[in-house]
Amino acid sequence: MSKAFIVLWMIFFHIVDDYYLQGWLASAKQKQWWKENAPQPLYKYDYIWALLMHSFSWAFMIMLPIAVAMSFNISWFFLVYFLLNILVHALVDNLKANRKKINLWHDQLIHISQIAVTAIVMLF
After folding, report:
1. Ramachandran angles phi, psi of 95, nearest 5°
2. Rounded to an integer, what distance in angstroms lies between the CA atom of residue 101 and that of residue 6?
3. pLDDT tens, 79-104?
4. Spatial distance between the Cα atoms of 60 and 68, rounded to a whole number of angstroms
5. Contacts of 31 (CB under 8 A, 6+ apart)
């Protein structure tokens, strides 16, 4: 399978996961949603779980084409990079959704950069 196709597949899965599959998590990863819909102190940090679940889904999707290309013979390095992608995605989404420090352009440029760096590190 060509490396160029794998990168295109990663970008496609990024679009699918970040736009179509988020569903309720798009709201749930925002602190404000919890304040308005579940204002009790018990739910104060539940947005973090939503950020992590979406980030796990996203990292899984963008790294799935690489796993396929590797015939699912993944290494500890693959798993570490997977966890790194989860962390970076969650931090970036938090900057956009909660801290309001970046906009959608910045968010997407960072995520596409994540894909590019992941592809370079894992495929080349």
Report:
1. -60, -35
2. 32
3. 999 999 999 999 999 999 999 999 99
4. 12
5. 47, 97, 98
